[in-house]
Design a protein that fits this description.
Residues 1-45 and 418-436 have low confidence and may be disordered. A hairpin with a 5-residue loop joins strand 12 and strand 13 (529-535). The strands form two sheets. The protein has an eleven-stranded mixed β-sheet, with helices on both faces. Strands 4-5 form a two-stranded antiparallel ribbon. It has helices at residues 36-42, 59-67, 73-91, 101-115, 162-169, 213-220, 237-242, 278-288, 340-355, 370-375, 384-392, 404-411, 447-469, 506-512, 541-555; strands at 94-97, 125-129, 173-178, 191-192, 196-197, 226-231, 246-249, 270-275, 323-325, 359-361, 474-478, 516-523, 529-535. The chain starts with 35 loop residues before the first helix and ends in a 17-residue tail after the last helix. By secondary structure, the protein is α/β, with parallel strands linked by helices. The chain is 29% helix and 11% strand.
Length: 572
């Protein structure tokens, strides 16, 4: 099966052509799309794609620029495509490009001229992780078997994932789909069999974080204004932290998962924004959040959406009078104590928090039994076969597979032994080995699920009791206990790739279903970012938005990376 919408992009083929059929030239022509000449002539201050400063450009600024007729969506899209063509050979953030990006931009320009913007994301170029369906584009989930260009079979869905549909309706321009480790199976590095290795835009010799590393690199490098990632155990938080970005992992059930290749869509998978500012992340969450008939679990979020949206909770004074718990051995013992420089940066961040009117409590979980209860977690129920079959049912009649038998024929894997295959939980080491799994039974029909649900209720109750006993509004942690690891962990073993980002909140947060937002607070002496994380109880996204925005505005910590066009030679 082959579609004109398929345009693979790897380090070897480097933006081979951002056109349908993937034939040269690399650069789209501004004159190639009907209406572009007219849009260009209508500008009050004509510009060119080359004249647009994309570095750290936000959705908010784009709307101001559109209103001022500084440039069109076509020109902005072309500028991003040109930047990608220049730097992508080094950073390898993408798996595929959207050959209709300029055509979509032209339509949005015409719509803007006729009726104004749809909203704050009108004409904003974005990227999506390649485990989310976009109708007509290949979804590889990082796996070469789902890409004809990589020797497999193109897996082309018939419609958009629910979150992609919502983003497109908001007026975004999806530039392309970003790299991820096969089936999102690594929380530290982003290396796929379909596209190879993604590099960190801050430092090419450091890991980009995973599994949403392609999205993080694209956003950090200003290849797009913002992007979507997914998380099961740190896959939004880790890459955002590793690249000095804002990563928003929402409460499980707030955002629909239909059309996203699952790891654990029953209990833990979430979709969330990766952006350079808290405002942009909140703007995206306003689009993503809310119930959908395509994912009935998302009705759990009904009644929890804030009046006026998340952006209305941006408040520079939101930290005044708030009380936060700090990390300690009462929360976890793995990756503790903090690395010395991390501890220093965390202390500086705490001092800033206090200056802004907040109070803190040292290790509020100490003596609570939280660590011991977390260790008693029952085996997570077998959900992969169930969740994958649910995903297949939404692919459409022309997709490459619709049944376990067809999936097995393409992948060569046992469908009922997919549980946690490659589903790395950021920071817990290598993925667990495949284990036999029952047929795709609804998980809640099993006693295994009953045990897991009972444990989750128990640990949530303990979490809430700790907050209540200490009169805490939330938690303020470092996102990681140390800086992101080297891209190549051991030069003598270049293929050695442990999943060892020292994340602090992510697995625990995902197991309980809590929300977290991470954002840059400072930088290490070697120039790598240090991110902090605000954590709250379920459905406290509005508060997290306010706290993070206040901290961001007071610190202005984010730094744009300096990109390179050629990798440095390895030392001899």
């Amino acid at each position: 099966m082959r579609s004109r919408f398929v345009c693979p992009l790897t380090t070897a083929s480097v933006v081979l052509a951002l056109l349908a059929g993937c034939s040269p030239p690399v650069r789209f022509s501004l004159e190639a799309t009907p209406g572009v000449r007219q849009e260009r002539a209508a500008l009050s201050r004509p510009t060119t794609a080359a004249a647009i400063d994309l570095v750290e450009l936000t959705a908010e600024q784009i709307q101001k620029d559109y209103a001022a007729h500084t440039y069109t969506a076509v020109q902005l899209t072309q500028a991003y495509l040109d930047r990608i063509a220049t730097y992508e050979p080094v950073y390898n953030a993408f798996i595929s490009m959207n050959p209709e990006a300029l055509e979509i931009a032209a339509r949005l320009d015409a719509e803007y001229k006729k009726s104004g913007p749809r909203g704050p994301l009108h004409g904003v170029p974005v990227v999506i992780k390649d485990n989310m369906d976009y109708a007509g584009l290949v979804t590889t989930a990082g796996y070469a078997g789902f890409s004809e260009a990589a020797g497999g079979i193109d897996m082309i869905p018939g419609d958009d994932a629910a979150v992609v549909e919502r983003m497109r309706k908001s007026g975004v321009i999806v530039l392309g789909k970003t790299n991820l480790p096969d089936f999102a199976g690594d929380g530290t590095r982003t290396k796929s069999t379909v596209a190879g290795v993604t590099r960190n835009a801050t430092n090419v010799n450091r890991a980009p974080g995973g599994s949403s590393g392609g999205t993080a690199t694209a956003v950090n490098a200003s290849f797009a204004t913002l992007g979507l990632g997914t998380e099961t155990g740190g896959s939004i938080e880790n890459p955002a932290s590793s690249q000095g970005l804002v990563g928003f992992k929402p409460t499980f059930g707030l955002v629909p998962l239909e059309g996203v290749v699952p790891i654990d869509a029953t209990y833990r998978d979430v979709v969330g924004p990766i952006a350079r500012t808290v405002r942009d992340a909140a703007t995206v969450l306003d689009v993503l959040a809310g119930p959908s008939d395509e994912d009935l679990a998302s009705y759990a979020g009904a009644g929890h959406l804030p009046e006026g949206g998340y952006v209305s909770h941006l408040d520079a004074d939101a930290l005044t009078g708030k009380r936060f718990g700090l990390v300690g051995f009462g929360w976890r013992r793995q990756f503790m104590p903090l690395a010395p420089e991390t501890a220093e940066l965390y202390a500086k961040a705490i001092a800033k928090l206090k200056v802004m009117g907040a109070e803190v409590v040292e290790d509020p979980f100490a003596g609570s039994g939280f660590v011991d209860l977390y260790k008693e977690q029952p085996r997570v129920p077998s959900v992969s076969a169930h969740d994958l079959l649910v995903y297949m049912h939404g692919l459409g009649p022309n997709a490459a597979f619709h049944s376990p038998a067809e999936w097995e024929q393409i992948t060569g894997k046992n469908f009922r032994a997919t549980e946690n295959a490659g589903a790395a939980r950021g920071g817990r080491g290598a993925p667990p080995p495949e284990r036999p799994q029952q047929p795709p039974t609804t998980p809640t029909a099993t006693e295994e699920s009953d045990a897991y649900g009972a444990w989750r209720m128990q640990i949530r109750a303990m979490f809430r009791k700790v907050l209540a006993d200490n009169k805490l509004d939330g938690l303020f942690f470092p996102q990681a206990a140390g800086p992101i690891r080297p891209l190549v962990e051991d030069p003598s073993r270049p293929d050695y790739s442990p999943n060892n980002h020292p994340e602090i909140p992510s697995n625990i947060i995902n197991d309980i279903g809590l929300p977290v937002i991470t954002l840059p607070a400072d930088y290490y002496a070697d120039g790598m970012p240090f991110n902090v994380a605000f954590i709250g109880d379920m459905w406290t996204e509005p508060q997290l938005v306010g706290w993070a925005y206040a901290f961001e505005q007071a610190t202005k910590a984010r730094r744009a990376p300096t990109l390179i066009t050629k990798l440095p030679e390895a030392p001899r």
